[in-house]
Amino acid sequence: MQVKVGKSLNSDAASAVKEATAGMSTPAGMFFQSPFNQIKEVSKLLSKQFPNTPIIGTGATSYYGSEATDQVLIIVAFESGAMVKAGVLRYLSSAPLYDIMDLEQAVADVRPGQSDTVCLEYCTNDEERLVTSMNVALEKAAVPVLGGTVFGTPSGQDSVVCVDGVLYKDACAWMLVKNTSGKIRTYSENIYAVPEDAKTHVATKVNLATKELISLDNRAASDVYTADLGIPRNAIVDSVFKHPLGRIVGDDTYIISQYEVTPGGGLLNYKKVYENDTVCFLELLDYKEINANTRKKIKAENPRISFIFSVNCIYRHLFFTQEHYLKTFLGDMAQLGNHVGVVGGGEQYKKQHVNQTMVCAVFE
Question: How confident is the model over 190-245, as pLDDT tens digits?
């Protein structure tokens, strides 16, 4: 597969699009990440310039090379060796299956093979509903979902995604990409683990609408956190980098980021916890070693990398920044090949919405 990446730091949207699309002629599909104040104009300009090309995009903090910024326009064009379809799932908060037939038709048209297709997406909200809905169309074809929640929208504005020149809120912009000349492999990186002596607890009361974990084992969730880790209630939020929550499903653990303690002692999180879920408190591992092992695995399994797209959680982004490690992390990713990343407010991978995780798709 041939993939071209263009970028521009120009503050004028028209000039930025011209610069970033230089050398792009008739791509099979493209996606973009722009400064938030350029989304509307960039979306219209690209759709006018490439009227027959499926296009999705959003506003974002983007990774390119060893840099991270929300002031750059990044455009990724899938060219030869690619088959691409794009669309939107509207009404995520009320009727997430409303447009599912469009995704089902796209899957039928693309005819995914073994490990050669991925569904990339940007979404605005209701991630658990979204992942369940998307898998109605994707699971039977063994196509993985890989994407992120829009993060960084300016205060007072709605988060939006773009599909073919149109902006949508309460929605998901998806792009089905098939590599007709190789494989597409996906990866998920977790830098946390369940401690050997960890206690497990059962979620006994939750508020799904607000993503509040009210009680564990019929005790206030914050009291259980404090008792297990010896961390006072007023330090629970600041401990999220080292001790997030974990939802245990069989042999898998899905990270849950806490961001507020409620007056009643519950924990507000970026991922829903359901009643009767098994929950524990995680510990931070040697993230540098884990990053190195992820890159080693990617390199070993993909000897001919044409492009890598990653979604890195905002909490990982902030933690790596705090540790003065972000530039090193991005530089190491860039050494693998042509890499573009986005900072997500949450990550969607296969059948789960998760927090504090990196997910990535590697295109041969």
Answer: 999 999 989 999 999 999 999 999 999 999 999 999 999 999 999 999 999 999 99
pTM above 0.85, yes or no: yes
Q: Which residues contact 264 (CB under 8 A, 6 or more apart)?
A: 214, 220
End-to-end CA gap in the chain: 6
Decide if 314 contacts 151 (C-beta within 8 A). Answer: yes
Q: Of 242, 238, 251, which is closest to residue 278 (Cα–Cα)?
A: 251
CB 241 within 8 A of CB 315: yes
pLDDT band at 250 (very low <50, low <70, confident <90, very high): confident
> What is the distance between the alpha carbons of residues 187 and 207, in angstroms, rounded to a whole number?
31
Residues 109-145 pLDDT 10s: 999 999 999 999 999 999 999 999 999 999 999 999 9
Residue 76 near residue 309, CB atoms below 8 Å: yes
Distance between CA atoms of residues 246 and 355, nearest Å = 10
Fill in the DSSP letter of residue 36.
G
Give the CA count within 13 Å in the CB-facing half-sphere of 352.
19
Residue type, 77: A
Cα distance between residue 167 and residue 44, in whole Å: 9
Question: Using the 8-state DSSP alphabet, how is residue 153 labeled?
Answer: P
